[in-house]
Structures are given as structure tokens and as C-alpha cells.
Amino acid sequence: MDLVPALREPLKKALGPATAKVMAENLDLHTVGDLLHHYPRRYEERGQLTHLADLPMDEHVTVVAQVADARLHSFASAKAPGGKGQRLEVTITDGSGRLQLVFFGRGVHKPHKELLPGTRAMFSGKVSMFNQKLQLAHPAYQLLSEEGDEAVESWAGALIPIYPATAKLESWKIAKAVQTVLPSAQEAADPLPDSLREGRGLAPLPEALLKIHRPHTKADIENARDRLKWDEAFVLQVALARRRHADASLPAVARRPRPDGILTAFDDRLPFTLTEGQQKVSKEIFDDLATEHPMHRLLQGEVGSGKTLVALRAMLSVVDAGGQAVMLAPTEVLAQQHHRSITEMMGELAEGGMLGGADKATKVVLLTGSMGAAARRQALLDLATGEAGIVIGTHALIEDKVQFHDLGLVVVDEQHRFGVEQRDALRSKGKQPPHLLVMTATPIPRTVAMTVFGDLETSVLDQLPAGRSPIASHVVPAADKPHFLSRAWERVREEVEAGHQAYVVCPRIGDEEDDKAGKKKSPEDEAEKRPPLAVLDVAEQLARGPLQGLKVEVLHGRMQPDDKDAVMRRFAAGETDVLVATTVIEVGVNVPNATAMVIMDADRFGVSQLHQLRGRVGRGSAAGLCLLVTEMPEASPARQRLGAVASTLDGFELSRIDLEQRREGDVLGQAQSGARTSLRVLAVIDDEEIIAEAREEATAIVAADPELTGFPGLRTALDALLDEEREQYLEKG
Fold this sequence. Notes:
CATH class of the domain at 262-461: Alpha Beta
Number of strands: 21
CATH architecture of the domain at 262-461: 3-Layer(aba) Sandwich
Distance between the termini: 25 Å
Strand content: 15-25%
Shape: globular
């Protein structure tokens, strides 16, 4: 975030090649600017001890504590000279908790001399468990001399910064490296316009960088964080505002539904009235479609709120206006499900001839990668001639040979599953940029919508249609109370006997492909030597045991598309009692007669995913039941997560819980962009006000000066944020 060469200087030159190599390999830090923006995670107060009681298992930690006790043990060893080995056990304390450090072999001599009772030091290592006690084996450490060890005092004042670190790069080594490059902070170019910074009483950037790395007081830390949060929020919102500004200047064909067209005919045949929410959101979409600039709208809605119906009405209005609409689904199962439900909703209106024909009907075509050659040829012909007004498909729609007659609207379902290139390739198939509607059934907190989807206008459907039934959710602790699991299968039988159907969801398929794919085991698996429960195993056990006599079928992603479709059709028709499946049923699957769901190993799924899965039941007039089966102990974070899911049906509340439990870095899709997250101090849940204000300021600045010619510091910060990968990610809308 700089204008000057000082911050762009490679760490190789500033710190030497060896240190620079470790920084690059372990923390992805390459320049002086990168290192200055690697902020401390927290601060320890000199003279005050840390909390050892809450250390997380299997994580690399840095603690400041005092040696309470040190004992050297000898034991017989064939490997050691003279047949004797040595083990040094050091107990450190913070007054509230104790932690054991262990050193073996030749590594005991130095700590034996230095770690004497009463000594204070920083210790860094991976937390493990031995004999039911937390310990650090062979931790690195740095003594903290009260008299004034100059090497330490030079970078650690009253407040000792603790940096995000790794096994090969301890916090104090990072701190010493920061000390070396800190003078360069004076030359950092400020991305915030003077009026904005002064109006809010924010510190200049060089001052904020000095205070975050070397604070004298807690007030210094607060001042620095307040300022740096604004940097992150504002620069990101400027990037998104420029994207919105560029999109708004593109031409598009206005698509207005004609009176008494296919949309009117469709509305007339609906057996229910639209909810207020559906009417409001539809108006927002129709207003956008009527403009000569491409719509960019995010439609987020609760599970079962009727997003597909809203999207279909938008598609029909485009057909009325002489254009074509396409719906892109992430999987073949979902594409087929959408095709089936849309043709059922439309009835004879889906059996039309030419676009705009007097019979008001159009053709609804499915296009997926596994279609036979003849069906595919016909589908491609219908797209190219305009015979098909509505097209539903998977990524097969993106191939070069797929041509549209007049593409007016692209609806993307479950946007987060598509790469940027795929989305852009589809949009490029219009004569002019088509309108874009992105749908997600994962409710997103307002701040995340402003951050991740900040280049899209947002519509929210948070009202369930009349007649939808509540879903009762319960955690089933299979390890503590095995009879609860037996009762779960009894409940499934009761639902089937009452004329309903059930889903059983498992985390994996269970054939040899899982092993070939080298699926990584979770820490829970390794600890318990317990593989995740599998569809094929569970289906067989249920059919032979508790659900014997019921019609049980399986569904998973590696089945042939025709087989998957046949299974779904049988289940939808009520021919199957229980469907044992992977998360392939997570979105879009709509079987109103399915009232019960049992999720095995529920702790292996995320909060949002569990909410999605649960939304497959309770879609009819009968009450829904969701049972979350887990073997995790009651006190574990995984059990608490399941308790949260069971306690509320509010997806927006759950999305906040989900976000609070994940690292902030995930919010910008760090894994998707491949770049380091730009959010270091900004917390998207807690800093809603800053993000909202930054969005307003950014929109105003970009409207007045789209090229930012009057803001050179801001331009530089923007260039640093928008490396190639991140620019692509920001263009996800």
C-alpha cells in the first residue's frame, strides 16, 4: 500500500536471502510492505502472565509464561551414549493454568541451564496431549530478562507483540525482522483521502504502522487498528465501486415483459398468490431488466423461500421481450431437478414453438454434458434458432459450440461453485452483455454481502411461503446415548408408515475411489482411527437392520447421470421410502413428501451446509424432522456447532455463527482467489458500521473521479490489492 520504492523493496535485500526465503515459504511475505502489513495477532504485557488454560490442540502457539519447575530424568536407551537417555520436563505457569514442556536427547542441555524456576520467557510450539495433559514438545523459546536484555528490549517494550507464526518462523523472529524494516513505514503512501481521514480523526498511515507494531499503550493499539480497518474496508469498497461503475456504463438490451404475454399466462395458472417478499423482489428485478444497462443482482433467500419461482418469472419476462434466458446449475442432479420443476410449474406453457408466438408458450431445454448425441444436437439447434426461450444446464452450456439466438438473462444458481472464467464465458455469448441474476440459498450477513458480493445489488427473500411446515431439529449423541440412535431409526419408520419419506445423509460414498482419491482424514479421524460414515455401508446396514423391509436406495456423485436421474425420479414419485445420499441433495432437490432427515457424522459438515441439507424436508404441509447424529463429546466445539444449528431455523443467524467460527480470511474466499486475504484487522461481523460507511465514501469518490486521478495513494493501494487473481475474484459477480 505504497507509492515509494522503500515498501516495494524485496525482503531479500532488506533482511538477507536466508530470512527472506523463510518468510516467503512460510508466510508468503515478499516485500517490506508485505511484512509491515503482517500485524501482531495480540500483545502480551510485560510483567503480566498469559492464559494457558485455553490453548487450542494441534495449533502452533506463542505464550509468555514463567518457569515453575524443571526436572531432568534419565532413562535406559540403546540409542544414547552409555545406554542412558535424558528427558527434561519443564512446567510453566500463568497463575491460572500450567503447561508442560518436554525436551529429549541432546536438546536438553541448553534449556536445562537456562530454564530455571522463576525465569520468564516466550515459548513457541505445537500444542499436543500426553497422559491427559497439554504439552509443548521441544518448543523454541526466547528468554525475557527483567533487567533489560538489549536484544529483547530493542523490539519488545511494555507490550510484547505476538505475530501469526509457524513452526519454522517464531513470533520473536518476525518481530526482529519487523524492527529492521520499520523505518520504511515513514514512507508509506496514504490511501485515505485527507478529508476522509481528518473528518474521522484517523491517524496517518505511517503513524498507524508504527503503533500497531510497537505500541507503548493499549490506546496506541486501538488507534492503529481503527485506522488500518478503514484502509482495508475503504480500498476494497473502492475496488467494488469501480466494478459497479464500469458495469453500469455497459450497454444492454432493456427487457420489458409484454402485457398478456407468457408471464401473465404463467401467473394466472399459479395455484397460490406470491408472498409479499416475492412480489417486492420481483419488482426490483423487473425494474433492473427494464434499463439499458446490465442488471447485476444477488438474490439470496432462506431455504425454501421460493427463489426458483422468482427467477423463473424473471426468465419469462425476458422471453416475453423476445430474448432467451439461461439458468446455470452446479451439478447435473440440480440441473435436472430445476428442469423438472420448471416444466411442471409451466405446464403447457413449456411446450411452445417459436419465441413470441401467439400461443404464448416457449420451449424449455435441458443441456448437460452426459446427454446423448441426438438430444444434444436438437438442444443446440433450439438454442441457436431461438426455439428455446429457457435453457437449463451445467457447465456444458459454456462450451464454444453452444450459440444463443438472443441471450438476455443469465441466472446463476449457487454462484460460489462456479469459477470466474466459466461465468464470464457464458456472459460473452450475448450480442450485448446479458442481465445477470445470481442466486444463493446460503444466507449471507449484510456485511459479507457488501464485501464479497459488493459489486452486486442485493435482494433478500426471508419470508417462507404459506403452507410450509416448521422443521424440528435435534442432536443425537450416538456415542453417549446409543439408544437415541435406535430411536432415530424408529422415527424414520414411523414417518414412512405415515405415508412419508426420509433422507439419510453421509459424508462420503464408501467405495475404493475414496482411498484412491487420497482423501485427507480429519484430526478426529486420526485420533479415533474412525473413518467417516459412508453411503454404501450405511445403506446396506439400514436395509439389513433397523429399516429392514423398507425400500432403501442410494444416490451419490459418482453414479451415472441417467442412474442418478432415475433414482431421483423414483424418490420424487414416492416409490422409494428412504434415500441414503451424499450432499448431492444439498440444494434444489424438492420432494414435498420427504419429512425426515438423519445426518450421519453431522459434525463433519459446516453450519451453512447443515442448514441447506435440513431445508430438503418440511417442504410440504407435514412437519419436518432433522436429526443430527454425532459421536463428538458434549464439550467439543463440533457439538456446540450442532447445538446452534438445532436451536434455530434462521439461516441469517446461522450464517453469523458460521462466520464467527471461521477465520476472517475465508470471507474473501482466500482459497478461491489463491491470494493472501486482504482482511487482516477488519472483522466483517463486528465492523459492519465501518464497512457501510466505507461503501458510501467509496461510491461517492468513484462517481466523481472513476480513474482516481486525484488520489495517487489510493490508486497504488488498489494496485496492491488487485493482483491478477484477486481482480478475477472481485469480478465474480
